[in-house]
């Protein structure tokens, strides 16, 4: 805390069944001999897009040929920097986390973005940013690629965008857009980019019990997703012409479904400029912050600079005349599932559907089986301390122990102190305390997260090398404590699923090692190998990567039954030395291609080409966080650290493509 022309979801996957390149994947060749199928990974390229919404690198026409940010002047050019050697005037630059430079038609350089949201200049072909989470299929052997993408300008907006490519992903042409979260909003740090993401489409034989096949689109309600009981959103696709999204709502915001009432009268000024006002309410629970809500049909955007349990702060309205709120007025968040959409049932805390599992033996005839990701946020921090304690201590008061159990008479938990994460063993539990505790040293503050067995406990000294973690003992130094595993389910109608349980071999959600993946992603591709086995392209990460988004590497795994998978083999990974960025800072010139995915490489989707090669699309960030602070130093190479300069272009949510070339070794031909 995120896509499809009719029939593309199923036909595209089926077309991948002929030849696949793998790392040490045993298979039978066409003549029946045994051999090992291997492949080489080509050089990735940053894809370009034409005709779509605003991009990171199109610059800001109001500035002329140059732009100055934080006292640094650099070219204002609407081109891919790797093609010119120039650093472009991109939306996100270090030191300016918002608003987005050039996103709106008026921007005076002081953070007051107003006017109207602009689009990509006509005729331009620019780096495909900020797009990510690609889902790509083909019905003609890779000559035409049909792509669905998350379009997600940081802290501003999110939408599902489709595009088509005729050159294996090098260039994409916009074909449609739908389900936008914040249409027309010139953001000023007063909202977020949490809309509908992780889109996936497939054909089902009996859509919604109609007796007819249908193409359906699945999305994650990002504000409320990854919690127990939250489902995926389902839309029926009715393509028209080149637009797979025709018929879907152009705008469809989602939220956490909260409702409350205003506690006092207040006049809300028009935004996005200005400091905004404070709105007192009964409760801010189940409202995302920063974010927006509705009052009497008016949209109000609020940041979270000093919000409390009963106050929204920094609030402005999208109504140019302002809005007067009276005490007692209803204040409502957008719903988790929009009124005009359906929702899945039977999937377990789904973060997204990874891929279709064709010919899966565990699914009934006539159904469609899928591999999907179960994800539960903050799973390993189920409670907090209710009073300060000094370790070692026999009793630790907590809010609730219902998620903790004794195993062989004890439970191992983790708490943060100034000395690091402490390992504590307790032999008893009451409803609100752990008893018989031993181990650890130092002071634990009230309100500290308590790590359950299996919690991620990477030291902050390691997390900060890549800009991850937080130097706060109360939050276990910012270790990500989400739970992710892959599961299999099947459906007939696209709405009601039957879960068939977890798969094994891909990751260990409790791992703190540097050799076993802790987290796996929610976008991938499953193909059928020549010997009938499954091949899977997916992304994953170790505990030390610090984030359940699973962006350390793209890997390959195989399986004979779709349940038991081989150990993941890395295909392409991050570069936590950030060498390309470091070299550009020192020497100037074009950013090396690895600089576009040195911090994150994830969300792979694969299509087979007619010549037997594979085209793989994936998403990349230059650093794990989109906008690292100016002057911060990161990197695992102590002799060549990357110090973030002023006005460094933020290369985040970039779409890249690469060719995988298979070959057989040791086969009896």
UniProtKB/TrEMBL annotation:
Keywords: Signal. Coiled coil: none annotated. The keyword Signal applies. Residues 1-27 form the signal peptide. InterPro entries: Glyco_hydro_beta-prop_sf. It comes from the Bacteria. This is Exo-alpha-sialidase. It comes from Actinospica acidithermotolerans. The lineage of its organism: Bacteria, Bacillati, Actinomycetota, Actinomycetes, Catenulisporales.
């Amino acid at each position: 805390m995120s896509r499809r022309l009719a029939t593309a979801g199923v036909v595209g996957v089926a077309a991948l069944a002929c030849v696949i390149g793998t790392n040490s994947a045993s298979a039978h060749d066409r003549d029946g001999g045994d051999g090992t199928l291997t492949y080489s990974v080509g050089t990735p390229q940053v894809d370009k897009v034409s005709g779509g919404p605003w991009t990171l690198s199109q610059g800001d026409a109001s500035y002329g040929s140059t732009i100055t940010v934080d006292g640094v002047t650099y070219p204002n050019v609407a081109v891919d920097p790797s093609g010119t050697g120039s650093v472009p005037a991109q939306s996100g630059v270090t030191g300016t986390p918002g608003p987005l430079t050039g996103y709106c038609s008026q921007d005076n350089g002081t953070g007051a973005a107003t006017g109207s949201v602009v689009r990509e200049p006509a005729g331009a072909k620019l780096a495909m940013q900020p797009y990510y989470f690609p889902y790509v299929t083909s019905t003609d052997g890779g000559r035409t690629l049909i792509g669905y993408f998350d379009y997600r300008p940081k802290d501003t907006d999110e939408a599902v965008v489709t595009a088509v490519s005729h050159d294996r992903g090098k260039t994409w042409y916009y074909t449609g857009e739908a389900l936008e979260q914040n249409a027309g909003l010139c953001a000023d740090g007063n909202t977020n980019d949490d809309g509908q993401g992780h889109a996936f489409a497939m054909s089902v034989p009996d859509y919604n019990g109609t007796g007819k096949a249908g193409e359906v689109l699945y999305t994650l309600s990002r504000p409320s997703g990854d919690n127990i009981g939250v489902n995926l959103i389902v839309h029926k696709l009715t393509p028209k012409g080149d637009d797979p999204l025709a018929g879907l709502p152009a705008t469809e915001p989602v939220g956490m479904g909260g409702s409350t009432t205003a506690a006092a009268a207040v006049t809300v000024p028009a935004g996005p400029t200005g400091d905004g006002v404070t709105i007192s309410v009964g409760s801010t629970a189940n409202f995302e912050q920063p974010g927006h809500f509705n009052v009497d049909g008016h949209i109000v955007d609020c940041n979270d600079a000093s919000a409390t349990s009963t106050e929204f702060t920094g609030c402005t309205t999208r109504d140019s005349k302002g809005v007067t709120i009276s005490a007692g007025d209803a204040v409502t968040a957008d719903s988790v599932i929009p009124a005009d959409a359906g929702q899945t049932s039977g999937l377990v805390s789904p973060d997204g559907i990874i891929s279709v599992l064709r010919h899966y033996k565990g699914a009934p005839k006539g159904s469609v089986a899928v591999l999907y990701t179960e994800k539960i946020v903050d799973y390993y921090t189920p409670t907090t301390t209710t009073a300060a304690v000094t370790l070692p201590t026999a009793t630790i008061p907590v809010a609730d122990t219902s998620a903790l159990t004794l195993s062989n008479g004890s439970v191992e938990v983790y708490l943060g102190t100034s000395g690091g994460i402490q390992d504590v063993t307790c032999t008893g539990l009451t409803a609100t305390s752990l008893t018989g505790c031993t181990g650890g040293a130092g002071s634990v503050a009230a309100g500290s997260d308590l790590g359950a067995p299996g919690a991620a406990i990477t030291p902050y000294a390691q997390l900060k090398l890549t800009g991850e973690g937080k130097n706060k003992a109360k939050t276990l130094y910012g270790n990500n404590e989400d739970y992710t595993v892959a599961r299999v389910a099947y459906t007939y109608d696209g709405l009601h699923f039957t879960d068939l349980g977890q798969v094994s071999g891909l990751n260990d959600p409790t791992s703190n090692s540097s050799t076993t993946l802790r987290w796996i992603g929610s976008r991938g591709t499953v193909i059928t190998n020549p010997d009938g086995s499954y091949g899977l392209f997916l992304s994953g990460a170790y505990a030390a990567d610090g984030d359940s988004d699973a962006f350390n590497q793209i890997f390959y795994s195989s399986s004979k039954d779709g349940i038991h998978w081989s150990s993941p083999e890395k295909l392409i990974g991050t570069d936590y030395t950030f060498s390309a960025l470091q070299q550009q800072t020192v020497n100037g010139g074009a950013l090396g291609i690895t600089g576009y995915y040195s911090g994150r490489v994830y969300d792979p989707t694969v299509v087979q080409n007619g010549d037997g090669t594979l085209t793989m699309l994936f998403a990349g960030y230059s650093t794990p966080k989109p906008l690292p602070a100016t002057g911060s130093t990161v990197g695992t190479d102590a002799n060549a650290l990357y110090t973030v300069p002023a006005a460094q272009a933020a290369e985040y949510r970039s779409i890249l493509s690469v060719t995988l070339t298979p070959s057989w070794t040791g086969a009896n031909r």
